[in-house]
## 1
Amino acid sequence: AQTVTQSQPEMSVQEAETVTLSCTYDTSESDYYLFWYKQPPSRQMILVIRQEAYKQQNATENRFSVNFQKAAKSFSLKISDSQLGDAAMYFCAYRSLSGTYKYIFGTGTRLKVLA
Amino acid sequence: DSGVTQTPKHLITATGQRVTLRCSPRSGDLSVYWYQQSLDQGLQFLIQYYNGEERAKGNILERFSAQQFPDLHSELNLSSLELGDSALYFCASSVGGTGLTEAFFGQGTRLTVV
């Protein structure tokens, strides 16, 4: 069974600085999708970025980018020029492309942004 | 607005009672997922439906059940409620299949068992 691990329960970053959130996963599949979701205090789950495993190029969305290392099964999220509004819980998620296609989430990393 | 609608937004009930949470997926989405999030915890996968049929089961208690109806809306039934069932229950939907599509989440139903 697939698992997703986020080893950093909490991270802090100074406003305007860069922070990297870690995510590792375990799977025997060769094709899958990976996602980062943000959950602000409102508790709404918001997609930040997504990555297809067969693509070597790292996904980028404005200030958010990923470092996808398929062999290492690592999928970290880099937030550049951090803003106060980035403060939230961040969840890494894995989506299988066989069987059930379900989404498996990590335990989350709480990001604090310091003014 | 994700397009996924969950009702009610808040629910307060007593131990031993039964409640039903409702989810309307985005238009066109065939897959519905239910997740439970306890305070400051991650999302625990409960169950998934695809086009009316159960596709996957996670850590769902026997006291909990769900179904997806022909119009694709889904209901999660929680019975013999205990204090520990207090949590935020999310419904998410996606197109399903192999396309690169994220799960779109509703705003959740906050259940408080007293």
## 2
Amino acid sequence: NAGVTQTPKFQVLKTGQSMTLQCAQDMNHNSMYWYRQDPGMGLRLIYYSASEGTTDKGEVPNGYNVSRLNKREFSLRLESAAPSQTSVYFCASRGSRGFFEQYFGPGTRLTVT
Amino acid sequence: SQQGEEDPQALSIQEGENATMNCSYKTSINNLQWYRQNSGRGLVHLILIRSNEREKHSGRLRVTLDTSKKSSSLLITASRAADTASYFCATAEDNYGQNFVFGPGTRLSVLP
């Protein structure tokens, strides 16, 4: 039982390049989330998926797209990376009953030069 | 917008002392959650308190919730060096409990 896994762990991009961050969970959770964390700050929600086939914007969706590929996988895509997107990205998942806690992946550290 | 706002931003104490962190929020909530983040790692859930609860305990953790003041506090008793981490409160702004907002966190340093 690996929990929430993210790939890659580190990535350096040049401005304008694109990439996809991958996230998978093996806990049969319905809800999945993408956050970014900037130095010294809390997490900000980018997008979330309450269930397979649905996605919704969070606080800071501009410059990102997401895909809920199936119940296990939720990917985050940067179409044209900008230096302002330099951050640590966390994926999380949550069970569907009640208001259960979120389980977080280890994060992807992204630098855009 | 940052719904959860913790204070203090940083706290430094000696091992064995108690640490208290506070969180304020702006809208009505169904529950409030506290998370811990060790340096360079993902967040780990500590405790959840529902809006109809006033206090909750889990081991050395005690959480209180005052919905009239829109505030919560996290108390860690008899702190240990291993408690050194950042602590965040989180609330969900929407009725479905999905659109989570995290505060900027309190960085706790426990000195041996």
